[in-house]
Each structure stands twice: as structure tokens, then as C-alpha cells.
Design brief:
Blueprint (H helix, E strand, L loop, with lengths): L15 E4 L7 H12 L3 E4 L13 H9 L1 E5 L3 H4 L2 E3 L3 E4 L3 E2 L4 E2 L4 H4 L6 E4 L2 H6 L22 E4 L6 H8 L1 H11 L4 E7 L16 E7 L8 E2 L4 H13 L4 E8 L5 H15 L8 E7 L4 H10 L12 E5 L5 E5 L1 H18 L4 E5 L1
Parallel strand pairs: 1-2, 1-3, 3-8, 5-9, 9-10, 10-11, 11-13, 13-14, 14-17
Antiparallel strand pairs: 4-5, 6-8, 7-12, 15-16
The chain binds iron/sulfur cluster.
The site of iron/sulfur cluster has 8 residues, from loops.
Length: 359
Amino acid sequence: MPPATPRPTTVWRPRRLIVTRAARTFSHGRAILDRAAALGVEIVELPGDRLNLAFPDDPARAYAEAKLTLAVVVAPPSKRRLQPIAPSADWRVDLAEGCPAHCSYCYLAGSLKGPPITRVYANLDEILDSLPAYLGQGTITSRSTTRAHEGTTYEASCYTDPLALEPLTGSLSAAIAWFGRWNADAQLRFTSKFADVAPLLTLDHGRRTRMRASINPRAFARFEGGTARVADRLQALRQMALAGYPIGLTIAPIIAADGWEAAYATLLEEAAASLANVPGVDLTIELITHRFTAGSKAILDSWYPGSALDMTAANRTTKRTKFGTEKQVYDADTMRTLRRFFHDHIATALPMARILYWT
Ligand code: SF4
């Protein structure tokens, strides 16, 4: 397949950047500030470390302003204590929190509190230097007979899309290079709905970072405002594979809306075409069905009042989590049908792929 012509990429430009006093003491924080200033972003230098965020009472305006706000802060020690993150990885490592995109199913709505600003961490070196203490301590992928060979895994996409922020932060490149230098049985993982991988292609990654493209059919693009085109994400993934990175597809969230079979069959064919003739490609697939909680639904309804995304009780059942909370997932019949479909179609379209999990 001839490579698609990459489209010019646009750098996310927040309207204002707020930087705390402590964040300015880190060279990484100052570099972010300088990049934003060069783009003409308004810079607000706080005299202290408290973010005093005042947003309009009108929820739509508050949402819009928050999404255009980038805060550069210092991750406190409590945030640098890593947590397990099943089923993706042994440990969650946060380089940032929040995302500038506008997905009407965004899982962050149920995870992060307050207005949806994006926070990036200035003390990146401290965050990375804390990782070796967790080596060999993992209980998720390290205890899996099919995944233990990945080494201790660290997931960087739990609370953000790190590639979306990369042109401003450089944090992802720094983390990839850090894992490349770390001569250990460990792997950094990230997934993204963005496509500007150019700065990552020449890094000395040592095959210790796996990038996954998070994809959904074009028919559902209306649910993914502000993200890169799916064709561009797949093209970016191909470029990463050609640069020697292990890669993956995160098919998420799988949405059982009208026409889903044809839409996902086409998506898998497009993925297969994009990844054709990549020598020795190391490809994994993660399959995550759409789910929501009462809390995340209420927030998403307020953020995206016109969204056509179905969050009614149709085809749903309540699942209790191990933390005692409840979420709405597809009912058993729908899950069975979806699961069979994906396993069958992946076996045909992408026989070289290893499915990591279904949830
Ligand atoms: Fe949320 Fe991911 Fe969409 Fe960003 S790209 S808004 S993190 S779902």
C-alpha cells in the first residue's frame, strides 16, 4: 500500500498558560513556558503554588475556557506514588492530567474532578527517577503468563493523551528516551488519538516503548472532537513501527450503535492496509467496550448536551466494580456478539496481532 500523505499537523495552542512558582524552578517547566510563549499563548505567572481558577458560571463557557487552559504545576509526592492499572499495565505513571480534545465519551469525565483544564508536570525528572523502585514489583502484566515477557509495564495514558501535549511539553519524548537508556526489563506504554509522531521517530527508544493508536470507525468521528483523523493515527502508527517501536491498536470505546458491524469491519481492514508490509511488526490489540457511570454521564451530558452518543439503559446492564461503584456496560448478549465479531475479524484481518484483553 502506498503510504498516505501525512497532513500538516497543528499544535494545540491553549489560550492561556498558568504556571506556579514551584514549576518555574524546574528547567522542564520553564521550557514548556518558553514554547507556549513562542506560540503567542498568554502566560500567567502565579506568585505561589495554588491554582486560583475562576471560570464563568455558565457551564458551556466554563467548559470551553477550561479546555483552553494549560497549567504547569509540580506533581506532589502523593501523585508520584504509582498505582496498578489493570488490565493495561503494572503501574500508572502520569506525565500530565487532562486533555485538550472533546470526546463525548471521555473516560476522564469520571476520573478527574473539577473543570477540565490540562495540567502538565514540571518535575518530570523526579517522576521518572521514581520508576526504578517499582521494577519487578508489578502484579498486573508481570503476573500474566501471556504478558510477563513485557517486563514491568508503565502506562502513561491513564489521565491524559500525552501525544496531544507533546509539541508543548516534550515530556513524552523525554520519557521514551529515558526508558531507552534504562537497561532494564521494563516498558513504557502510551495510547493516543493524535498523530504527530515526528519528534518520536528518531529517539533512541531501545524498543522499550509501545505506542498504541486509539481508533474508532470514521462513522463515529463525531464523538471524537479535536482529535486527529483515524487515517492519520494509523499512518502515524505505521511510521512508529517502521522506526522499530512495538505498536498496538486500542479499539476504544467499542460502540454498539447502528451499523457497528460494517463500521468496525472497515476499520480493521483500514488498519490492516496501513500496517501492511512492516517487517517484523510487533502488534498488540486492546478491546475496550463503551461504559459509563452515573457520575460520568452527568458530566458528559453537561459538557456535550447535543451528543448523539447513546447513554440510555438500552442494551445495558449494571456492573459493580471491586471498589464498590457501579458502571453501565453492554448486556451479556451484546458483549458476546461484539466479542465474537472482534475475535473473528481480527483473526482474518490482522492475524499477526496479539489480543491483550477484552473488557
Ligand atoms: Fe478523553 Fe482521550 Fe478524547 Fe482526550 S483523546 S478527550 S483523553 S477520550
